[in-house]
Amino acid sequence: MTDQIEMAELHGQPVIKLQTPDGAVALISLFGAQLLSWTPAGGEDRLYLSPKAVFDGQTAIRGGVPLCFPQFAGEGPLPKHGFARNKQWAVSGSRAGKDFAVTTLQLVDDADTRALWPHAFAAEMSISIGGGRLDMELEVTNTGDAPFSFTAALHTYLKVREVSVPALGGDAFTVAPVPRQPTQTTENVNGIPYNVLTWSTTISAVKSGEHPLDSRIQLAVLQPTRHRLRDVFGGDFFDNFFGNDFFGGFEAKTVSVASSPTSLKALPLPEEGRPDTFSGAVGHFELRAEADPRQVVAGDPITLRFTLRGNGNLERLQAPRLADSAKWKTYPSNARPSPDGSEKDAAQRAFEQAVIPLDAAVQTVPPVSWSYFDPEARRYVTLTTPALPLKVLPPAHAATSSPAASPEAPPPPPTEEERALAEASSWARRAAGRLLLLGQKPAFWLALLVPLVSFSAGRRAWESIRRRRQDPLHLRRLAASRAVRCALAELDAAQQRGDSSLFFAAAGRALREQLAARFHLNSASLVLRDVEPHLNGRPELLGEIRRLFETADAAAFAGVGTDAAALAEWKARLASCLEQISAR
Asked: What pTM did the predictor assign?
């Protein structure tokens, strides 16, 4: 062994570690001569090793590159994939250079193998790494007198690195956030294991009827190249009957995978029995409400927190809210971020609403109703929160009290400070006399009145500004303005990069924030039907907003290829919409 080739352990089992000066690394198990890990220079591990793999020296290891010999799969009388992967191999030779490292493992027949397969043989598995190359070569020698036949394979478990999350095609559905990392498992089909990647999400129909639906994804996978190990060593070092195109190196390839087109039929929601509190939620949900604080003074704000949990179109839910009444002043609900900082969670949505009790007689936060449609029961369901106990105090009044009279005691002698205070009081009385004389002159009162009036006007202006700064509605408008500016900055950056998906995502966000601020709506759950009543008299503006929303959804869910000129045109149309919404 050398510094580049050493014995090590992995999960308690002996392995050979190959490494090269440029950073390439490989781990080969002596059990089954199985390559378990390969990291090219400057890259990451390219092989998949199942978390369910067993390392007990008896069970075939799931993952890496298992060697199938002398039988592949169940194509014969031997155990599936033969016996080579379940035998201990011995190191027969190793070499290393400035740009490569190679080891060769050997397995020869013994009583156990001859009991299963009555042939004399010697098998050698050679594995070489260097730079971005991996070379594997199997050589089998018949050491007996009788001929034999066999099948063999290097059953590679390649780690898949996704370039993009799956994108759904079709304009009739919206898609909940798709997780970046899929669940990776293996599945046996006709005795052959396959890697399976699974992304879980929820789609919601936005219009009734039968609509096409397809999905596609881009993946980065490793594909074998047509090179032999002799390319590293030269000559015919591994001259065997496999020829020049059996096992060789690997290179990364980006492939596009598309599903077979299908269609889904979305039924229209029934008009009969539709409650006033229904706003488009479809699925199965639970509603919980909290209030904080529970003791306030009339006129002080309370935060109501609503949490919706369940399965359905969570990403498009409209928030529950307490309505205005004679005893309550309320503000629009806003989405509350999840603990990870995002506004959306795969299983729940949370909202907050600021409310103010106006009467000290209020004793509870009234129940709040919210409705959804149950697609399995084919009926509307209304959820109602319980009344939340509350203690509202009347506005505080300053109370004054007079201390009880105490018997007079002889006064103590004056201190130095008291004598100084007495002298100052005498001087003040004399000065007051002189001021009385000045008070008979109109100019004196005018000089006093001007700064007094200025101070009073300034104080009233400051109080107005302070109240405005504390007004939740004003704060929400400021937050919306900042959100619009941030979205437009992201839009500009995406336009410069030519990224149409991020461009339209930022455009949709800016449009929602502007509409929500103008019409006191919730931007997190705003949909087109929320703003239609406010724009009935402006069909041109409403149509342009609809086109922007549809294009943003298409870019988010299906991908939209748009050139620089088209992005500039969409940016101008967005600017016009924002200006009209603000001026209306």
From this structure: 0.40
